[in-house]
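Thread: "does anyone have the structure for this chain?"

Original post by V.I.:
We have the sequence but no experimental structure in hand. Need at least a predicted one for the grant figures.
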Amino acid sequence: MLERSRELLFALVAIFFITILYFLMLTLTRGVPAASGLYGHGMGILGFLLMLMTETLYSLRKRWRNARWGKMARWLEFHIFTGIVGPYLVLLHSSWKFNGLAGVVMLLTGIIVASGFIGRYIYTAVPRTANGIELSLGEIETQVSQFEDQIRLVSGQTLLTPELRDLTRQRDRLRRQAANLVNARRMLALWHAIHIPIGLTLFALAFVHAGAAIYFATLLH
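Reply from O.Q.:
Generated one for you, tokens below.
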């Protein structure tokens, strides 16, 4: 379980240290850092870049499944990490003001993050290889048979009781996933149909917001 959730742990650790730095800024500036100030801009730019990486890198990696630049599972972990930390930085960048276009962007950011958490757990309902490649029903059944063969080999050996329990648990998990495979794939397809358009809308508005901020804060001065 810890292995499966380590990207969440890393994200929480990053958020913890970012929060400490934010409170240090509050102390030094004696107020909430303005979105248009040095600290506010820095958090906004970094958060936006992380969110842009969230939106693009994992999708590109999925298009080249046979590429050797990292396992799909690791790219998914990075995708989740940046998808949590980036929006948090954007939230701090907002100076807790949610009016106008910036408010709409923050609302969509909150929706996309919540949707991402839902998608993560739908994703794990579909059995995959260690590299993150989705298994077919036939491949799942083959794995179940392999586990059953191993269970028969260690069954009755007292010293291998923990191993037997682990094998049985994995076999039963695969059986449940095989039984729910069709529904899980349908849910994942529905989730993509909702999540991707929201993400594209978010980034379109984010680019408009960033362009307007540069225009009004820089070019008009």
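V.I.: this helps a lot. The chain has seven helices and no strands.
O.Q.: and The chain has two domains: 6-125+189-219, 135-179.
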